[in-house]
Every structure is written in structure tokens, then in C-alpha cells.
Design goal:
There is one protein chain. This protein is an alpha/beta fold. It has a single domain, classed as Aldolase class I (TIM Barrel), CATH 3.20.20. The protein has an eight-stranded parallel barrel with strand order 1-2-3-4-5-6-7-8, surrounded by six helices. It is globular. The protein binds 2-phosphoglycolic acid (PGA).
Length: 257
């Protein structure tokens, strides 16, 4: 069991415009009225629903994050959103380098590194997403692959800055597929990521940074994943779109804390 405070984060992806988001948050608030201070809960709606979600959750213990940002401050970048805009909208967290961004929108390690630095400059905690494809795992290249992603993401950050980051290990083959990494596979990779952090930043930072698991996490498999020593929470896609299953996930994490 992790000694770090668990973080349960919902990644809504391209779901939930303002009306639908309000409905989902209403459902969540009615199912889950009280929260313990022992875990952190976060929802990451689409940009257009962020302000509404921040207002809506103002007096609740649920925090709001974005799913992406751009690394320039402002200017002629049609369609993009900057870190300062997210900060102004009340976001505390932002997902960076999700595999769908890497795959469908051509995000490179270099862009991801710049995004991380920009988010941190605005005091927004980046949730740095890493994870290999099935092919890479089959060829036994998954540790090297994730190591390269981690090293590129943290390029230029020091051990104090790294404390204000979160990592999400999301094996691409487990995202939205219903196939979850086994608890052993998750623990093995999380422990490896922590070793990498130790090599980069030393023991204290490596021991403090939270590493979430993502990829078909749901109430049915959450406990076995969240009880692994180096699994410090979950980044939840599909199951965060149902108030009932997200509330259940929160309760499972609370009961483990
Ligand atoms: P999933 O998505 O829970 O639907 O597999 C997780 C994610 O992509 O963050």
C-alpha cells in the first residue's frame, strides 16, 4: 500500500459540454456528499466546461484540471489555450502528454517538456502521462520506452521542481480497451518509474512523487491496483463518466487510506 496520499482523477476526454458536465457533477455531488482529507479527487473536463466546473465545485473537495495546454503565453496560436488561462480559470492540475495527444495530435517529447515547464510556472501541477504500446511491450522494450519518456519530460527540472509533478502510467494497450494491466504489471512499472526518478532526483523526491495508474481502471479492479505499493491513485477515463462508478472509485480509495 502506498504511503503517499492517493489521487483519484477523472479524465473526461472529449465528453461533457457545460450541460452534460453539470449533470455529471450534480450526480457526483448527490452520491458523494462528504470527503475525507486523506485522498485527493480531481476531474478534468473539456476546456469549455472548466469555468463552470470550477464554480460548481467551489465549495466541494473536488479539484478541477484541464486535459491539455499550449506552451506559449499568448498570441497567434488559433485554437490553443495557455497555462495562464488555465490558472485564471481555476485549474490546479493539467494532463500533459496523454497518449491520445501523442498519437493523434503529434505531440513530441520536446513539446511535452515545454508544456510541463509552462504549467509549473503558473503553479499548475502537471500530470505527466507515459506508457508503451502493446508492440513495444511484446518486444520487451517497455522499460526503455517509458524511461525515455520520463527523462525527456523532466529535462531541465530539478529535484525540488519535480516534487510538484504527478506521473500517470497508462499502458496504451489498456486505455479504453477493457484490458487492464495486472496489479503485478502495474507495480513492476511503477517501481521502475520510481527508480528512474531516484536516479534523476534522489530518494526524497522519488519517494514523494505520486504515480497514478491509468487504463480501464474501474470499481471492479481498483482495489487490487490501488493496494500496490507504488500505485498512488488512478487516472480514470471511461469510469469517470458515470457519477456512480466514479463515486464508487472515490469510496474505494478512501477506504484504503
Ligand atoms: P480509460 O482511460 O480509463 O477509459 O481506459 C484512461 C485514460 O486514457 O486516461
Amino acid at each position: 500500500m502506498s504511503t503517499r496520499q492517493l489521487l483519484i482523477a477523472g479524465n473526461w476526454k472529449m465528453n461533457g459540454g457545460p450541460y452534460e458536465a453539470a449533470e455529471l457533477l450534480d450526480g457526483l455531488k448527490s452520491l458523494k456528499k462528504n470527503f475525507t482529507d486523506d485522498i485527493d479527487v480531481l476531474v478534468c473536463p473539456p476546456f469549455v466546461s472548466l469555468s463552470m466546473a470550477v464554480k460548481y465545485l467551489h465549495s466541494s473537495d473536488i479539484q478541477v484540471g484541464a486535459q491539455n495546454l499550449y506552451y506559449e503565453d499568448n498570441g497567434a496560436f488559433t485554437g490553443e489555450i495557455s497555462a495562464s488561462m488555465l490558472a485564471e480559470s481555476g485549474c490546479n492540475y493539467v494532463l500533459v502528454g496523454h497518449s491520445e495527444r501523442r498519437e493523434y495530435f503529434g505531440e513530441t517529447d520536446d513539446m511535452i517538456n515545454k508544456k510541463i515547464k509552462k504549467a509549473m510556472a503558473e503553479r499548475i501541477v502537471p500530470i505527466i502521462c507515459v506508457g508503451e504500446k502493446l508492440e513495444t511491450r511484446k518486444n520487451d522494450g517497455h522499460f526503455k520506452f517509458v524511461s525515455d519518456q520520463i527523462r525527456a519530460a523532466y529535462n531541465g527540472l530539478d529535484s525540488v521542481q519535480a516534487l510538484d509533478t504527478v506521473i500517470a502510467y497508462e499502458p496504451v494497450w489498456a486505455i479504453g480497451t477493457g484490458v487492464t494491466a495486472t496489479p503485478e504489471q502495474a507495480q513492476e512499472m511503477h517501481a521502475f518509474i520510481r527508480q528512474e526518478l531516484e536516479a534523476l532526483f534522489g530518494n526524497d523526491t522519488a519517494g514523494a512523487v505520486r504515480i497514478l495508474y491509468g487504463g480501464s481502471m474501474k470499481p471492479e479492479n481498483a482495489e487490487e491496483l490501488l493496494t500496490q505499493e507504488d500505485v498512488d491513485g488512478g487516472l480514470i477515463g471511461g469510469a469517470s463518466l458515470s457519477a456512480k462508478s466514479f463515486a464508487e472509485l472515490i469510496v474505494i480509495a478512501e477506504n484504503l487510506s
